[in-house]
Design brief:
By secondary structure, the protein is mainly β. Helix content is 0%, strand content 56%. It is built from no helices and eleven strands. Strands 2, 4, 5, 6, 9, 10 and 11 form a seven-stranded mixed β-sheet that branches. Strands 1-3-8-7 form a four-stranded antiparallel β-sheet, with no helix packed on it.
């Protein structure tokens, strides 16, 4: 059974930092591409960052230079380091892995106060 568990969300002031984690089980994590997405209230889910199995990254323009996606295949865990957070970064952040099948985590709430 595949399971993705996000953690690390919380309430932070603007300018602060958070690091999200996505712990995977039931898959060979190193063979999967992974991504972080977020959904703000009343808005559609949007891509934040992706990292494929070869190490290539892609970021939404709104987070470039502030967020960093990474992974530790030995720990079956992906990360999203978020620095200089802004109120518009508020939302539920979801981890997704893709490798033939697509799997989503349950999400973790990030709230940035002004």
């Amino acid at each position: 059974q595949v399971r993705l568990v996000e953690s690390g969300g919380g309430l932070v002031q603007a300018g602060g930092s958070l690091r999200l984690s996505c712990a995977a089980s039931g898959i060979i994590f190193s063979t999967f591409s992974m991504g972080w997405y977020r959904q703000a209230p009343g808005k559609q889910r949007e891509l934040v960052a992706t990292l494929n199995s070869g190490g290539s990254t892609n970021y939404a323009d709104s987070v470039k230079g502030r967020f960093t996606i990474s992974r530790d295949n030995a720990k079956n865990t992906g990360y999203l380091q978020m620095n200089n957070l802004k109120p518009e970064d508020t939302g539920v952040y979801y981890c997704k892995v893709l490798g033939g099948n697509i799997y989503w985590g349950q999400g973790t709430q990030v709230t940035v106060s002004s």
